[in-house]
Amino acid sequence: MSELIYFDNNATTAIAPEVLEAMLPYLSAQYANPSSMYSFAAVSQDALIVAHEQVAALLGAKPGETMMTSCGTEGDSTAIYAALEAQPDKRRFITTRVEHPAVLAVGQHLEKKGYDVVYLDVDAKGRLDLDQLRDSLNGNTALVSVMFANNEVGNIYPVAEIGALCRERGVPFHTDAVQAVGKVPINLADLPVDYLSLSGHKLHAPKGVGCLYIRVGAPYRPFLRGGHQEYGRRAGTQAVPNIVALGKACELARQHLEEENTRVRALRDDLQARLLAVIPDAIVNGDQEQRLPNTLNISFKYVEGEAILLMLDQYNICASSGSACTSGSLEPSHELRAMGVPFTYAHGSLRLSLSRYTSQADVDAVVDRLPAIIARLRELSPYRNLPESIDPGSCEACGACAG
Ligand SMILES: Cc1ncc(COP(=O)(O)O)c(C=O)c1O
Fold it and tell me: Is residue 368 part of a domain?
């Protein structure tokens, strides 16, 4: 098998060697429970304190505002349920149609429990209409949750403006920043955000660790009850090796932010420009003005994204055609559906996401292979000879059943 060419960094990232090195002692000699009272445990306790400081430094958070979690999903759930439980009289929850399932599924669950859940719409580029948010905020609103950056197309949302609107109306604001942390600068000292969730495995730490930022004074109730860990806000013995790893990853992310926004962005732009130049009937999805520097979501007319992935896999190229959580279904991702991407394009979407370990040679490999793959798939496409007037999603186009 040829060398791995990895373009799926929005799904997960490689552990940085420095991160692995930092966590290893806590997987071997330093195994103490950090809550224990002897000096052996103080080593682990100190390591946790350092990790909190490293995460806080990347976010511009104050001491005591970070709470370690097991993943981004836990951070999202904790923030939402905590804010709602702390304000039992308020029954409205506002979010968007393009959130990750870690937020959308909570919204659906809240609907079943009788909450009034508002899903804000997006336009064809996946952008929000802040007037719709303004009109939706009322005295019954317990929380607004809008992602910092979208995992599928990379759109960056106007978190400062959204937070300001919420603050004007006295409504707490949560942002899922799982895809943004480490890729774009975030300074919570200046941002009107009350809760922010992040996940270690998206920024070169291992899977199984994350952090929830909780602004001092934000409404809060613990999600996990039991011991007094994490300053009484999350019970459960801390995963010391993973937390140390997250701290180190955040320290490295601070050092590499500049690179993410120059070298990685330049590689992504090169990839995009060269693919568009050689492959006809291709469109870039999302908002190219406000986009993560590492993400390219591109759709090819008349092909299936899953077929592209299988053919790329033959060259050991890893990419995605929908978030890992939705793959397995042949439906285009809910983000592309919310944006109204035409059927003939939405099915042929490909997400290529880069990282600090992506090289020019990796980009060249995709540009070498992909045009022939798309051409081959188009030859096989049942849709390619359909007249433009027939919707390929219609019964008329399919004709497989008599009715
Ligand atoms: C935007 C966003 N939120 C939440 C999550 C869930 O994070 P985790 O896998 O750490 O639970 C992801 C993972 O892909 C994500 O992209």
Answer: yes
| Per-residue confidence (pLDDT) for residue 344, from 0 to 100 | 86
Quote the pLDDT of residue 343. 85
Is 32 part of a structural domain of the chain? yes
Q: Write out residues in the chain with pLDDT < 50, as ranges.
A: 323-326, 395, 398-403
Residues 268 and 243 in one domain: no
Question: Is-catalytic flag, 325?
Answer: yes
Q: Count other C-beta atoms under 10 Å from residue 386's C-beta.
A: 16
Q: What angle do CA 151, 193, 79 make, to 5 degrees?
A: 70
322 is a domain residue: yes
Residues 231 and 268 in one domain: no
Strand partners, 211: 68, 198
Same-domain status, 193 and 271: no
Residue 385's pLDDT is 64
State the closest ligand 1 atom to the C-alpha of 76, by its place in the atom list counted from 1.
Answer: 4
Task: Identify whether residues 71 and 60 lie together within a single domain.
Answer: yes
> Residue 338 Cα, ligand 1 centroid: separation in angstroms?
19
Instruction: Dig out the tokens for 48 from the structure.
Output: 């946790």
Ligand 1 geometric centre to CA of 270 (Å) = 27
Whether 260 and 227 map to the same domain: the answer is no
pTM: predicted TM-score of the whole model, two decimal places? 0.94
Ligand 1 pocket, residues with Cβ under 6 angstroms: 71-73, 76, 100, 102, 147, 151, 176, 178-179, 199, 201, 210, 323
Q: How many domains does the chain have?
A: 2
Spatial distance between the Cα atoms of 55 and 251, rounded to a whole number of angstroms: 7
Q: Which residue, of 229, 253, 277, is where some domain finishes?
A: 253
Nearest C-alpha neighbor of 165 from the set 191, 198, 197, 126: 191
Q: Look up the domain containing 332 and give its range.
A: 5-11+256-380
Q: Please, how many CA atoms are within 13 Å of residue 151, restricted to the half-sphere of its CB?
A: 28
| Strand pairing report for 92-96 and 116-120 | parallel
User: How many CB atoms neighbour CB 359 within 10 A?
Assistant: 12
Per-residue pLDDT reduced to its tens digit, 307-361: 999 999 999 999 999 644 445 556 788 999 999 999 889 999 999 999 999 999 9
Are 233 and 284 in a shared domain?
no
Helices first, then strands: H and E counts in the chain: 14, 12
CA–CA separation, 286 vs 173, rounded Å? 24
